[in-house]
Design goal:
There is one protein chain. Helix content is about 25%, strand content about 30%. The protein is of the alpha+beta class and about 575 residues long. The chain has 3 domains: about 45-215 and about 400-450, 2-Layer Sandwich (BirA Bifunctional Protein, domain 2); about 250-295 and about 305-375, YbaK protein, CATH 3.90.960.10; about 470-565, Anticodon-binding domain (Rossmann fold, 3-Layer(aba) Sandwich). Strands 3, 7, 8, 9, 10, 11, 12, 21 and 24 form a 9-stranded mixed β-sheet that branches. The protein binds one RNA strand of 77 nucleotides through helix 4, strand 21, helix 13 and helix 14.
Length: about 575
RNA sequence: CGGGGAGUGGCGCAGUCCGGCAGCGCGCUACGUUCGGGACGUAGAGGCCCCGGGUUCAAAUCCCGGCUCCCCGACCA
């Protein structure tokens, strides 16, 4: 492909709206343009890369037994009402009305439609297992799209759905998908960490996310080198350092003027925050719930939401707290009744805590559970922290940020039961089909790959997903000898199967080199008068700083060698 | 949804406080010179100053209303 024919314009100045590396570089390298918040046009360079990623995904999904199909993005809203996900997605679901005033939605995911397809095809255990997948544009009206392709409102996703006869079959499929995912991300040049993930309120049991470590990522994960434990903070369990122990002392009321925070309370009393208790008020689907937790630990609202099985969870506001008889700044589990009382497991250990007293300017000291207050239930609703112990008791957790590029999920029978998809087993009994779902954000993989592979000059594409593996540069392109040699080399490379971006522009050497560094194609070849005199061309890998010279007759094999190094 | 910032040739920005010819750099076009790390000269093209209303002799600039985009947070099976 000749650069003079390609829809490509690189940008010298940093785009003002972009801060994240991949966003900045994709704009500067002329890979995409913005159309609306979280909505982009993929220009030829980006699309080439996306197609390569898709190809890798297809190969691995097919190898894992998947069959590709394509479902509509435009769907009747009825499908979503049936499963209740109309409400579950809420404002994130793009809604529209057709000319006959019927409600429609732009699909953010495809469980409803694919389950209906499976329902129409699966009659017997002989039809199982079945894995269907598609690569398709998804729509999610995110509250805050950000960082270019990292979180868009329209994006490309590979979504796969498996149908099995029972949990054992699902286990096998699930493992097969995990293996396929590892292959996919490895081939895309993305180191990923597989972490336990939140499986949400809907049914699911096992769920794993594939996280690519990156500071720009939105997910926080907790890892333990010693034990190999890895989990998203949304789900992570941990062993918190113990609170001070001691013989229970009599509970007394203390004056704590102006103290309204845990930090303030600990300072005022001269005790560690781990020797305090806090009480947090929530509204869960309209029900009020009080969560008591050790002062130095934060409530994990996702764990709490899952525990309560509610769809809407938020902190109670001042009026709601007042209505329940609570005093902000001194809320207390002591003497409280009439609301659902939940305690985090963190309160089960330790003694003589300081806690609220439900009176302005006062707190209790030497509060001991269960002597001084009662709860209705205890559970793990704590946010795991860096420095906490790994839940398996081996080693300490470290925190890291990352980008979620894939998610595998055991759905169970929620959709098949809701939509009535059953099969006839060997004994002639009707049973619900068991589902799994498996997603990869295709356009996010591209952005993540650039997050992971760039330097101050530009992108450093992993060879398998580079728009072109080879960047051929003709220096002094108006020189007839250079042009002739470069044209011939271009032909040779293309016919040898190497897609080549041929910079035949009349630009100066500096411009061409800088653009080459910006685009980050894996192998750069320079044809110049200087090289021609010696009968060589220069070959340089983007990942390396030094170039090598190859005889003009042996360029193709030198390119093969250079690319082979990149495959590692 | 809460907080902050910004909309001016394709891109990056100045001008707005204090109303008076719409500017600069890059890019683009043509010609010439140059030619291994963002070359130089000369001559050009390119504008709904986000939109609507108002004030004024006069509005990019002041006033009112709206829209869009970015960042932080909340949110995000």
């Amino acid at each position: 492909m000749r650069a003079t024919q390609l829809l490509l314009r690189t940008i010298r100045d940093e785009p003002s709206e972009a801060e994240t590396a991949s966003h900045r570089l994709m704009l500067r390298a002329g890979m995409m343009t913005q159309v609306a918040a979280g909505v982009y046009s993929y220009l030829p360079l980006a699309l080439r890369s996306i197609r390569k990623i898709e190809r890798i995904i297809r190969e691995e999904m097919n190898a894992a037994g998947g069959q590709e199909l394509l479902m509509p993005a435009l769907q009747p809203i009825e499908a979503w009402r049936q499963t209740g996900r109309d409400a579950a997605f809420g404002a994130n679901l793009f809604r529209l009305t057709d000319r006959r005033d019927r409600g429609m939605a732009l699909a953010p995911t495809h469980e409803e439609v694919v389950t209906a397809i499976a329902g129409a095809h699966v009659e017997s255990y002989r039809d199982l297992p079945l894995t269907l997948y598609q690569i398709q544009t998804k729509f999610r009206d995110e509250p805050r799209p950000r960082a270019g392709l990292l979180r868009g409102r329209e994006f490309s996703m590979k979504d796969a759905y498996s149908f099995d006869a029972g949990p054992e079959g699902l286990d096998a499929t699930y493992q097969r998908m995990r293996t396929a995912y590892r292959n996919i991300f490895r081939r895309c040049g993305l180191p990923t960490i597989e972490v336990e993930a939140d499986s949400g309120a809907i049914g699911g049991k096992d769920s794993h996310e594939f996280i690519m470590p990156a500071q720009s990522g939105e997910d926080v994960i907790l890892l333990c080198e010693e034990s190999g434990y890895a989990a998203n903070v949304e789900r992570a369990a941990s062993i918190i350092p113990p609170a001070p122990e001691g013989d229970p002392l009599p509970m007394t009321l203390a004056d704590t003027p102006g103290v309204t925070t845990i930090a303030g309370l600990a300072d005022f009393l001269g005790v560690p925050q781990s020797q305090t208790l806090k009480a947090v008020f929530y509204q869960a689907d309209g029900e009020t719930a009080l969560v008591t937790i050790r002062g130095d630990v934060e409530v994990n609202e996702i764990k709490l939401k899952n525990y309560l099985g509610c769809s809407d969870l938020r902190l109670a506001n001042a009026e709601e707290a007042a209505a329940a008889g609570l005093t902000p700044g001194s809320t207390s589990p002591v003497g409280l009744d009439g609301v659902r009382r939940i305690a985090d497991n963190s309160i089960l250990q330790g003694a003589n805590f300081a806690a609220g007293a439900n009176q302005p300017g006062k707190h209790y000291v030497n509060v001991n559970y269960p002597r001084d207050f009662q709860v209705d239930e205890t559970a793990d609703v704590a946010t795991a922290r860096e420095g906490d112990g790994s839940p398996d008791g081996k080693g300490v957790l470290k925190a890291a940020r990352g980008i979620e590029v894939g998610h595998v999920f055991k759905l169970g029978t929620f959709f098949t039961e809701t939509l009535g998809v059953q099969y006839l087993d060997e004994h002639g009994e009707r049973r619900p089909v068991v589902m799994g779902c498996y997603g990869i954000g295709v356009t996010r993989v591209l952005a993540a790959a650039i997050e992971q592979n760039h330097d101050e000059k530009g992108v450093i594409f992993p060879a398998p997903i580079a728009p072109f593996p080879v960047h051929l540069i003709a220096l002094n392109a108006s020189d007839p000898q250079v042009r002739e040699a470069a044209d011939a080399l271009h032909e040779e490379l293309e016919s040898a199967g190497y897609e080549t971006l041929y910079d035949d522009r009349g630009e100066s050497a500096g411009v061409k080199f800088n653009d080459a560094d910006l685009l980050g194609l894996p192998v750069r070849i320079v044809v110049s008068p200087r090289n021609l005199k010696q009968g060589v061309v220069e070959i340089k890998r983007r990942r390396e700083s030094d170039a090598t010279l190859a005889p003009a007759g042996a360029v193709t094999s030198a390119v093969a060698d250079a690319l082979a190094k990149d495959e590692l």
